[in-house]
Design brief:
about 230 residues, alpha/beta, 5-stranded mixed β-sheet, 10 strands, disordered C terminus
């Protein structure tokens, strides 16, 4: 099976094409960016697909990250992935960004729980805890650093994700045995593809996972006056 994976949930626009049974992507590309996902995603995906044998017609599944992360990025990635899946009449699966960050740590299981953390700003993190075999220990949540560190328990813990460094520092203050594995700003797109290949489309809908309200809101109060034409 050939899958196209898309991620715009964090600080990059990423896409890759992966064949099942292979560890190396047929094609992959990531562009680090905080803004401009909408303008960058479609051209990036088009370049990626046009460069592989069989092109668009060779795709058999699409995987897309569902967040948590950037509200705008999540919406953009989901919109393109859904449109492509509909046009190509192929299955689509949603992949939690927290699961995507944790994915590479499951290749070689080690003692201790896994904490996947994404910086939610303002001293908070999106996070989720997993057993070494990948079984979730708690549902995805957003919490302050102290609350997140307490949720880890006695440790030891391996921490990964864009919020890993700040969570690891807080956990260390509690005396936990912390192993900071990665503080990458965005997940490995190949891990997204691998998780997407293993997922059941019936149980992994491409549905956004926001966890908190947006930081920006429309202006309240009286409407802005407009000059009469």
């Amino acid at each position: 099976m050939r899958i196209l994976a898309i991620d715009t949930s964090c600080g990059a626009v990423s896409a890759c094409i992966l064949d099942s049974g292979s560890q190396e992507a047929v094609a992959r590309h990531s562009e680090k960016m905080e803004r401009g996902h909408a303008e960058a995603l479609a051209p990036l995906v088009e370049r990626l697909i046009s460069g592989v044998e069989g092109g668009m017609g060779s795709l058999e599944r699409i995987a897309v990250t569902t967040g948590p992360g950037s509200f705008t990025g999540i919406r953009i990635g989901l919109a393109l992935a859904r449109a492509m899946a509909l046009a190509l009449n192929i299955p689509i699966v949603g992949v939690s960004t927290l699961v995507a960050f944790a994915g590479p740590l499951l290749v070689e299981p080690k003692p201790g729980i896994i904490a996947s953390a994404i910086d939610a700003r303002h001293g908070r993190v999106y996070f989720q805890l997993f057993e070494p075999n990948g079984r979730p220990l708690l549902a995805p949540r957003v919490d302050g650093l102290r609350q997140a560190a307490r949720a880890i328990g006695a440790g030891p813990v391996r921490v990964t994700g864009s919020g890993a460094r700040i969570l690891a520092l807080e956990a260390a203050r509690f005396g936990l045995n912390v192993d900071l594995i990665s503080s990458a700003e965005f997940p490995d797109i190949v891990a997204v593809a691998q998780i997407g290949l293993a997922a059941d489309p019936r149980n992994s809908p491409p549905r956004p996972l926001y966890l908190k309200a947006p930081d920006a809101f429309p202006a309240a109060g009286a409407p802005i006056a407009h000059a009469n034409p």
